[in-house]
Specification:
Layout: E1 3-18, E2 22-38, E3 43-47, H1 54-62, E4 69-74, H2 83-86, E5 90-94, H3 106-116, H4 121-135, H5 150-161, E6 168-172, H6 180-196, E7 200-204, H7 208-214, E8 217-222, E9 225-231, H8 232-239, E10 242-249, E11 262-268, E12 271-277, H9 283-293, E13 296-302, H10 306-331
Parallel strand pairs: 3-7, 3-8, 5-6, 6-7
Antiparallel strand pairs: 1-2, 1-4, 8-9, 10-12, 10-13, 11-12
Helix pairs in contact: 4-5
Length: 332
């Protein structure tokens, strides 16, 4: 097993100033009784709203933080206790924090990391060439980091994180702020590393496109707890209760006759997007009736976007948590 998390909780203590002389102690439960496992070579996404505990979980797995309760094992080691030893086998990229030296070119950081990880000079030269070609960073390798664009810097950040051939790569919002083209290129490279070199990837992201393209499994966190743990395909299967039907009519339709359970979600001239509730309607029957009553040029039937499923899961977990709190209150 690559990663084992057993009933882990992490609490923070804050002191709030009350008045001029008083302070009030407040305990924040960032992670609450979380357990999961990850096999070697898998790509796992940790997703959830802001404050759900995603970044805290990454820091616990990297050994930056120690758990208040429970235990963790990463490659068979306690990450906090054996942080120095584990550092040779794992790496991390935090989208809003840099490991590159701000006033130096990326090549200098690569050489420095090679010394830190005790990499032989010949081997380091070979690895740097592979990463420079892979991330296409040769044109700005000798420019100071402060002069690089965000996309250029992030490519260098990920390349630096891979300089010592880690077995596990932790990515905390690695594509935040990147444009569509750069984001797509970075995700493609990470996917190839995961599939071909069997690098285990743990990703936190708000971008559902990144999650679908890179990851196989997903853990949904909300208020520090696991709301759902599933394969992405299974999650789609279990939480899809509707279909999106996009129809291009020969001319702009007037007064469409729709079945109960079918609603218009967008219309732009002759193009209409419908949401069909699969609990009450048969999508094929709905399409057949529309085609028989109207002149139609094109029809596309799609699953709803992953965002809508995740939002539904968030809300379900939020309401379930509130219900548990109410029941506990009444039990007292």
């Amino acid at each position: 097993m690559c990663i084992e998390v057993n009933h882990v909780s992490k609490q923070y203590t804050l002191w709030k100033i009350k008045g001029w002389t008083r302070r009030e102690r407040q305990v924040i439960e960032a992670v609450n009784d979380v357990s999961f496992r990850a096999d070697p070579g898998r790509a796992l996404a940790l997703i959830g709203p802001n404050g759900a505990g995603k970044s805290t979980m990454i820091k616990l797995l990297c050994g930056i933080l120690s758990p208040t309760q429970g235990s963790l094992r990463v490659l068979g080691m306690d990450p906090f206790k054996y942080r120095s030893k584990l550092a040779y086998h794992i790496s991390s990229v935090f989208g809003q924090r840099s490991q590159l030296w701000y006033h130096l070119p990326p090549i200098d950081t690569f050489h420095l990391l090679g010394r830190i990880y005790d990499i032989d000079r010949v081997e380091l030269k070979k690895r740097m060439k592979e990463l420079v070609d892979l991330f296409d960073i040769s044109s700005f390798l000798y420019q100071p980091v402060r002069k690089l664009s965000l996309g250029q810097r992030m490519r260098c950040e990920i390349a630096a994180a891979l300089i010592h051939n880690p077995r596990i790569l932790f990515l905390d919002e690695p594509t935040i702020g990147l444009d569509v083209v750069v984001r797509s290129a970075v995700i493609d490279i990470l996917r190839d590393l995961n599939r071909q070199k069997k690098v285990t990837v743990i990703l936190t992201s708000h971008d559902t496109g990144d999650i679908e393209r890179l990851c196989e499994d997903v853990i949904v966190l909300n208020e520090g707890r696991i709301v759902l743990e599933s394969n992405i395909r299974e999650m789609r299967k279990n939480f899809f209760h509707s279909k999106i039907v996009e129809i291009e009519f020969a001319e702009k339709p007037e007064g469409l006759s729709l079945d109960a359970g079918v609603r218009v979600i967008h219309q732009n001239g002759p193009i209409v997007r419908l949401e069909v509730d699969l609990k009450t309607c048969d999508v094929n029957g709905v399409v057949s009736r529309i085609v028989s009553q109207n002149a139609v040029r094109d029809i596309t039937i799609q699953d709803p976007p992953l965002e809508s499923i995740i939002q539904h899961i968030y809300l379900s977990g939020h309401h379930a948590g509130r219900e548990a709190e109410r029941n506990a209150h009444f039990d007292r």
